[in-house]
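Re: that backbone. Tokens:
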């Protein structure tokens, strides 16, 4: 997302973490996850230790040893601001290589799954954000709307195929995004969402 929403490290945020979704994988995706984990174990990807991306604090608590797909990636909770982040995380060069790869797309954004997410975005209806309610993949939109922020433009880093941006586009906002997967960029552009190749270095000035 273009900004990091800070959740205080309280009983609320920990309750949210315990309900974080874990995906059931089909055989093809499981094979891709196994392939990626082997690349990680064999040292093909470079990881760097780092402090919180939001507040810069080094105070953290490990909460997960893998992501929701089973990829070997440690996740830490910042004890200052409550932000969740990968630690250690892939180096910038490794991230560029990984996000541009077919392996990333096959695990996280296969076309069959992304078509489904796009349809859910098209059907999205605003609702009251409930921190104790179920996580549905678009809860962050309700959170942003209830924050009463005055904004006209949404720019998403790692926009994938543009489904998140489609929701804001339907609200009348100007949307744009940056993405490293050329297939997902094409998907977004074909569906009327302005997504270009790039990362955090390609945020529009206005």
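Recovered sequence:
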């Amino acid at each position: 997302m273009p900004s990091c929403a800070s959740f205080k490290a309280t009983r609320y945020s920990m309750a949210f973490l315990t309900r974080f979704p874990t995906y059931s994988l089909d055989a093809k995706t499981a094979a891709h996850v196994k392939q990626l984990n082997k690349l990680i174990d064999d040292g093909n990807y470079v990881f760097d230790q780092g402090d919180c991306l939001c507040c810069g604090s080094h105070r953290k608590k490990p909460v997960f040893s893998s992501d929701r797909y089973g990829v070997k990636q440690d996740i830490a909770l910042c004890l200052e601001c409550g932000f969740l982040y990968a630690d250690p995380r892939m180096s910038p060069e490794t991230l560029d290589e990984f996000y541009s790869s077919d392996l990333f797309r096959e695990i996280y954004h296969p076309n069959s799954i992304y078509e489904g997410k796009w349809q859910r975005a098209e059907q999205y209806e605003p609702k009251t954000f409930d921190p104790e309610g179920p996580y549905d993949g678009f809860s962050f939109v309700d959170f942003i709307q209830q924050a009463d922020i005055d904004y006209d433009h949404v720019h998403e880093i790692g926009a994938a195929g543009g489904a998140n941006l489609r929701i804001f586009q339907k609200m009348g906002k100007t949307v744009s995004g940056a993405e490293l997967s050329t297939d997902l960029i094409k998907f977004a552009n074909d569906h009327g969402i302005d997504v270009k190749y790039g990362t955090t270095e390609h945020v529009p000035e206005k």
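The CA atoms of residues 51 and 57 lie 6 Å apart. The beta strands are 47-48, 60-64, 75-78, 84-86, 89-90, 153-157, 174-179, 195-197.
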